[in-house]
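Protein details
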Amino acid sequence: MTAAQAAGPTAPVGDDRILLGLNTFGDVGEAPDGSPQPHAQVLRQLLEQAELADAVGLHAFGVGEHHRKDYAVSAPEVFLAAAAARTTRIRLGSAVTVLSSDDPIRVFQRFSTVDAISNGRAEVMLGRGSFIESFPLFGLDLADYEVLFEEKLELFDKVRAQKPVHWEGRTRPGLAGLSVYPPLEHHLLPTWIGVGGTPESVLRCAQYGYPIIFAIIGGQPRGFRPLADLYREAMAKYGHPMQQMATHSPGHVADTDDQAREELFPHWLKLRNKLGAERGWGPAGRGEFDALCSAEGALYVGSPETVAQKIVRLKRNLGVDRFDLKYSNGPLPHAAMMRSIELMGTAVAPRVAELLAG
């Protein structure tokens, strides 16, 4: 058996169902006086959020790796191990692990350890990441951006097969028949590839036969239909059984549409313009926000009914198996995020199931 597939946890779910998960980067919020919260406090609150997500029956909880002051999660697996001890059903993963600046063997070992602690609930999402802080931090050259990811993904795939590893490359010493421990008990490690929207990334994911998750953070989700179709076609071309497709988008759920928008807007705007200034984008305003919150936009913001309708539209437009809401948005308060998580599990999820069954 190669490392191409592990059916089961990532098998497609059918036309009348969609799995709902949550993502967060551990966004650093603000204290009452406007100062940033301590990172330690954010991480403790994050554990409360994971516990609530489990309690309300959501499918997955993912934390993204970053190495900057506005996000508290730099070591996803350490957090996930703690969350594993405080949850019972929810799948626990990264969103994403920046494989380019990590060691594929250590990534596997850390996630196989989380899988043991959680009784088989671990998953990893691999990606290149949209931030580059990890490269200088770990002494890597940005000129090697592409080759680092390609070689490390190739090595990770061999390690994931849980057989003696034979591999050679130029970014690290080769391996000649060494085994990696601990193995998983009952399956291969569920492994996703996070894709920002390029055909090349879709084809690379399909080559390995991994499930794919599209990060849709702007524009219109229906615009990703050609990439979803490309993934299906490429999986068939490579001879792999179909795996799950998922999307990740920001959003916020509150009791009413107006409440959700008013709670989120100032925090969305602050984060959007901060990142925009770093990346050379022009300033955003209320018009851009409202367009993204519309029925065809990429922000899932509103009452449970509004968000449920939008998720069902996503399912019908793209045929995805899973939707992950990035529920933390800049300095959005902990209490607002907890309410959003509660509503996702108790109101949005059952309404989505009802709509898809109708």
Q: What stands out?
A: The radius of gyration is 20 Å. Residues 1-7 have pLDDT under 50 and may be disordered.
